[in-house]
TrEMBL record:
Any one GO biological process: glutathione metabolic process
Residue span, GST N-terminal domain: 1-83
Domain GST C-terminal, residue spans: 89-210
Protein name: Uncharacterized protein
InterPro entries (alphabetical): Glutathione-S-Trfase_C-like, Glutathione-S-Trfase_C_sf, Glutathione_S-Trfase, Glutathione_S-Trfase_N, GST_C, Thioredoxin-like_sf
PANTHER family for this protein: GLUTATHIONE S TRANSFERASE D10, ISOFORM A-RELATED (PTHR43969), GLUTATHIONE S TRANSFERASE E13, ISOFORM A-RELATED (PTHR43969:SF8)
Organism from which the protein derives: Zophobas morio
Amino acid sequence: MAPTLYMIDPSPPARAVMMTAKAINLDLNLKEVDFFNEEHLKPPYLKMNPQHTIPTLVDDDGFTIWDSHAIMIYLVSKYAKDDSLYPTDLKKRALIDQRLHFESGVVFAYLRRIARPIVLGGQTFIEPKNKEGVIDSYGFLDAFLEGRDWVAGDSVSVADFSLLSSVGTLARVIPVDETKFPRVVAWLNRCQKLPEYEVNKTGEKAMADFLLSKLE
């Protein structure tokens, strides 16, 4: 039986997990959460995940885990045929971990600060400080990419899937200035050519289009 992923397509963390699963040829049983009817706040979901975050993974033996980074690492560690997406080499892994923490603590944090008041509060603008923070994060990412094609080395890792899910969405709302951040633009273009991008692009566009439709 395939692991079950409770998800919504626009969710960047869910898309990061889906890209990882595709990369390791793992079929997932996808269950769409009825977010706007607050299914994630109802007792059955809270029993699985008291933090009521999306996505949540339930493996075929009942093991349950949430947080996209934890899910991606778990799936690669259990199901991948090799360790290329999350190497056992300590230094390579540490670099990937740093990028994952950057995604959650900086990039996705800004995306959430922008999206939450628009989606749930009816806000029609982006706070200037949040826009500035996103642009700063593009600068950090551009620096990470100096001398390499992928965010944590010479090959694709779970860090690329994680950052792509957030940066790809943000870049549609707050465009990346190619003159300032050429490496980010080149990286996004490379990511869009990956086969895994197929499970990301629809949700990426849907989330960005929704946000843009609410802005004045």
